[in-house]
Give the backbone structure.
Amino acid sequence: MLRQLYHRYKDDLLTVAMALLVDPDAAEDCVHDVFVHFAGAPGDMRANRNLRGYLMRCVANRAKNLIRRQQ
């Protein structure tokens, strides 16, 4: 199931990460980190009705945190 979700949303999530991070490798790492966290928190999957929006928010927040650490 996680693999299906990843393939369904990865392009949108990478677009968000790239817009914020500019670096393709960092953007991919960001998306992967979000999915690793998501895999460990199955309660979030059941509780969230707008999964795409939730994942996009998670990626944006993760990318912003990475930017803050670099500054």
In short: The helical segments are 2-21, 24-39, 42-47, 51-70.
